[in-house]
Amino acid sequence: MTYSFHPEAEAEFVDAINYYEECENGLGEDFSLEVNSTIRNILSFPTAWPTIDEPVRRCITHRFPYGVLYSIEYDNIFILAVMHLHRHPDYWKKRL
Fold first, then answer.
1. Which residues, other chains included, contact 32 with Cβ-Cβ below 8 Å and sequence gap of 6+?
2. Side-chain-facing half-sphere of 88: CA atoms under 13 Å
């Protein structure tokens, strides 16, 4: 299975990496590794996480307050958002 990002999801992922790196040297890399680990978990078990708004599912990262929102499209995971959990919960819906 492969994965791809919605352009806005990829941009928010990069923005979050840059934000954490500005907070502390190396923290951006740690965030990137955590999100990539979450994506690997999704690829291994795409239906394991709950549906939050059909057909979108959310897998929460362990170390950072973020969730990866995604849909399963045939043999591809389409990542709609790398969402900070304290943001407005519906901001990503226009990406569907």
1. 13, 17
2. 5
